[in-house]
Write a structure and sequence with these properties.
single chain; 2 domains; three-stranded antiparallel beta sheet; globular; DNA binding; ArsR-like_HTH
């Protein structure tokens, strides 16, 4: 959807319109992104998704399952695999012993860093942004992430 009408200045978009645009861009590029990531590392994309989330901050296995939209048994399998690969640790949560806290290891951090540092991992659409615009987008996404986590 264009943000401008013929002969008119820029049209303001609602938060919902921006969300739909962002969501469509991400979903439309998902297959390409998974392929690019799997060319850099040799773990299933579902594992990388979980690893990337705990790279931001440790979280309980339950929270990780909720954020990824998977059930507890699927998350258990994902975390078991990541533990077996030495990419995360899983320990009893200090605040609630019934929960397990998942934390990235140094090896897991290196895997995430390898993927995020590789310019070939990002979808080609990012070539449309210069360095300043990419920085602005990163700042805006950080604001949204902070709003979700507050």
């Amino acid at each position: 959807m264009s943000t401008t009408d013929v002969g008119a200045g820029p049209r303001s978009q609602t938060a919902t319109e921006v969300w739909f645009t962002m969501n469509s861009l991400v979903r439309d590029q998902a297959r390409e992104s998974r392929t690019r990531i799997s060319e850099v590392i040799d773990i299933p994309f579902s594992r990388f998704r979980a690893l990337r989330r705990v790279a931001v901050r440790p979280m309980t296995q339950r929270d990780l399952a909720e954020r990824m939209g998977v059930d507890a048994s699927a998350m258990s399998g994902i975390v078991n695999d990541l533990v077996d690969r030495g990419l995360v640790t899983r320990e009893a949560d200090a605040d609630d012993g019934r929960c397990k806290r998942v934390t990235i290891t140094d090896t897991g951090r290196r895997v995430v860093d390898e993927v995020t540092a590789n310019p070939a991992t990002a979808p080609e659409m990012f070539a449309a942004l210069d360095e300043v615009q990419l920085g602005q987008l990163a700042e805006l996404l950080d604001l949204l992430r902070a709003a979700v986590e507050s």
